[in-house]
Specification:
Layout: E1 7-11, E2 14-17, E3 20-23, E4 25-29, E5 32-37, E6 47-50, E7 55-58, E8 60-65, H1 78-87, E9 90-95, H2 106-116, E10 122-125, H3 141-145, E11 151-152, H4 162-175, E12 178-181, H5 186-189, E13 194-195, H6 198-203, E14 207-208, H7 210-227, E15 231-233, H8 239-250, E16 255-259, H9 261-265, H10 287-299, E17 304-305, H11 314-317, H12 334-344, H13 349-363, E18 386-396, E19 415-425, E20 428-432, E21 435-436
Parallel strand pairs: 1-6, 2-7, 8-9, 9-10, 11-12, 12-15, 13-14, 15-16, 16-17
Antiparallel strand pairs: 1-4, 2-3, 4-5, 7-18, 18-19, 19-20, 20-21
Helix pairs in contact: 4-7, 7-8, 8-10, 12-13
The protein binds (4S)-2,6-dioxohexahydropyrimidine-4-carboxylic acid.
Length: 438
């Protein structure tokens, strides 16, 4: 492929990776980082990408992206979602399996992987834990693992039956894969359209209590202790959940956890106008919870910030709150929203990028330490999956200018500081000057 032979010079930026930060230019040849040093000359015929004033980092890695294909191409496709990802600085996303049909067979997994081949970023796939995500019979985890799938989840729903979850964990342990749980007790959450608390009472909207999440986090920690399998907790949203995970980590249990940019930055009072764009599962919580999530990021209890990018088309979302599906867009706003929320909590650029790039790459086994090409240090010989981020540029979120097929961003009209200037995927500049190149 022509782009594999491209030569690039990313010039004038500050390289930031797990080893620290330094001022350096980055030369890329044949999809691979060739040289990293100050004052490099462009290789013959190279495209020069201006990184003056920018951070040059391993591309961001999203553990939690709903690409909707197959089945809901009106909301998103692998192509449109991966375009949004690249524009958001991502060089890899993990596609969630709650498609139609669900990714509960090798055939559907192969289809999504195939669709991802020409995409603007790497598209990894998560498999379902149970057939049809119905929570009863285990999906063919071994067959899916044989395709290189490492994460399994029924996301959109939690696995309700503890016996089924125990069996899934036992299989997962044998296969060396990780189960990722959407922690939501269906009985406790039933009928709730937002967080249950003062706001929901005042609005007269049925809520989901924090306990709907926390009882499943607690149960699954017990199951990890029982089985020895590793577990990843998706989109944790409450102070109680992160306290439980902190306890499990202190005990040495093999658990990891993510939070979303929206749970770090928005609270349940956003629903005061009954606008379904703010409806999401788990629901937006309270300021007490957002502060606890940020502290858990600072303390290393939370390993990753993941978008839970959940596109829904206007005809589905622009309906009364109780009829709207939960979910919000995230890929193109994740980095600046996280930077703002965690910056205010005292985290620096390096810590924020750790949560968005190399730590999730490790959880998804896309990191060079696991034989992958994402999130590794920017050194000669590394795969050229990079993002160039301007931490000072400001821009205003306009839904119509986002690449997603859907428009359900909760940040409409919001002025954000932090813009993606370039994204390099396998040595190809797929985003240049904030625009996709193809
Ligand atoms: O709000 C959500 N939307 N939470 C989920 O877990 C699933 C997602 C979706 O698929 O729309």
């Amino acid at each position: 492929m022509a782009e594999r032979r491209a030569r690039l010079l990313v010039r004038g930026g500050t390289v930031v990776d797990a080893t620290g930060s330094r001022r350096a230019d980055v030369a890329v040849v044949d999809g691979v980082v060739h040289q990293v040093a100050d004052g490099l000359r462009p290789p013959a015929g190279a495209t020069v990408l201006d990184a003056e004033g920018c951070l040059v980092a391993p591309g961001l890695v999203d553990l939690h992206t709903h690409l909707r294909e197959p089945g809901h191409e009106e909301a998103e496709t692998v192509e449109s979602g991966s375009r949004a990802a690249a524009l958001g600085g991502y060089t890899a996303v993990v596609a969630m399996p709650n498609t139609e049909p669900a990714v509960d067979s090798a055939a559907v997994a192969r289809q999504v992987l195939q669709l991802g081949r020409g995409a603007l970023c790497r598209v990894a796939v998560a498999g379902a834990i149970t057939v049809g995500r119905a929570g009863q019979r285990l999906a063919p985890l071994g067959e899916l693992a044989a395709l290189g799938i490492h994460l399994f989840t029924d996301d959109g729903a939690g696995v309700q039956d503890a016996g089924v979850m125990r069996r899934a964990l036992e299989y997962a342990r044998g296969l060396g894969v990780t189960l990722a749980q959407h922690c939501e007790d269906a009985g406790l959450a039933a009928g709730g359209h937002m967080h249950e608390g003062a706001c929901s009472s005042w609005l007269g909207v049925p809520g989901q209590p924090a306990a709907a999440e926390e009882v499943m986090v607690a149960r699954d920690i017990a199951l990890v202790r029982l089985t020895g399998a590793s577990m990843h907790f998706l989109h944790l949203s409450t102070a109680g959940s992160v306290a439980l995970v902190a306890g499990a980590r202190a005990e040495g249990l093999p658990v990891t956890a993510e939070v979303t940019p929206h749970h770090l930055s928005l609270t349940d009072d956003a629903l005061c106008g009954y606008d379904p764009v703010f409806k999401v599962n788990p629901p937006l919580r309270t300021a007490h919870d957002t502060a606890a999530l940020a502290r858990a990021c600072a303390a290393g209890v939370i390993d990753a910030v993941a978008t839970d990018h959940a596109p829904h088309p206007p005809e589905a979302k622009d309906v009364p709150l109780d009829q709207a599906p939960p979910g919000m867009l995230g890929l193109q706003t994740a980095w600046p929203v996280t930077l703002q929320a965690l910056g205010a909590a005292g985290l620096d650029w390096l810590q924020v990028l750790a949560l968005l790039s190399w730590q999730p790459a490790r959880i998804a086994r896309l990191h060079p330490a696991a034989g992958g090409d994402q999130g590794g240090p920017v050194v000669p010989g590394a795969a050229a999956n990079l993002c160039v981020l301007d931490p000072h540029a400001t821009w205003t979120v306009e839904p119509a200018s986002l690449a997603s097929r859907s428009r359900n961003t909760p940040f409409t009209g919001r002025s954000l500081t932090g813009a993606v200037r370039h994204t390099v995927h396998r040595g190809e500049p797929v985003v240049v000057g904030g625009q996709a190149t193809r």
